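About this split. The held-out portion is used to measure sequence recovery: a designer receives only the structure tokens and must propose an amino acid at every position. Recovery is the fraction of positions where the proposal matches the reference. Here is one held-out target exactly as it appears in the evaluation file.
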């Protein structure tokens, strides 16, 4: 008798949990679809919501290379991620940036394995966000974004020049999974 009563309850909670999981990565999709109609984001290149400039020209160049890496990972283009990472290494060295950021960028530039690149991108993103917080842009805004499902639901952050979510950790598989969690200005 108890088994018969528990089955509908278990089925209900399983359905509810599944719906919450899908909502976490598709919530607000209608709003993003409207925004996408107003702007052409089909090529997934950097289309900032304003011009972003930094007082330190080298930091500005490093930011551009970081965005190229992010976009390459969004497009699952390991070769472009590798190339942009090599350029980021040079920019970080000219900035006298933290050694750990150089190390993460070098790790990305030394492999064509997307999974390895994406794993190194997370600590690179965290450290790069801290670097930008220390020297925020003179003009424009940088967006801190998060995917709660990356790395077996541990979640991972990245930074972007736009509010639209283009997930570098999943690419096409879950392109819009994530949300803006902060702004650096």
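Reference sequence for scoring:
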């Amino acid at each position: 008798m108890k088994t018969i009563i528990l089955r509908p309850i278990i089925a209900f909670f399983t359905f509810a949990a599944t719906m919450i999981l899908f909502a976490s990565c598709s919530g607000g999709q209608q709003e993003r679809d409207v925004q996408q109609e107003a702007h052409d984001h089909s090529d997934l290149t950097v289309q900032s919501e304003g011009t972003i400039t930094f007082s330190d020209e080298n930091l500005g160049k490093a930011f551009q290379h970081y965005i190229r890496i992010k976009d390459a990972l969004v497009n699952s283009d390991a070769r472009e991620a590798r190339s942009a990472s090599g350029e980021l290494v040079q920019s970080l060295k000219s900035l006298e940036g933290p050694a750990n950021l150089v190390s993460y960028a070098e790790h990305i530039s030394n492999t064509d394995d997307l999974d390895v690149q994406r794993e190194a991108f997370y600590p690179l993103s965290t450290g790069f966000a801290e670097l930008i917080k220390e020297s925020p842009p003179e003009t424009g805004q940088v967006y801190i974004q998060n995917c709660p499902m990356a790395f077996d639901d541990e979640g991972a952050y990245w930074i972007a020049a736009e509010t639209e979510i283009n997930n570098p950790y999943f690419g096409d598989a879950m392109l819009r999974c994530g949300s803006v969690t902060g702004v650096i200005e």
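Annotator remark: The mean pLDDT is 81.
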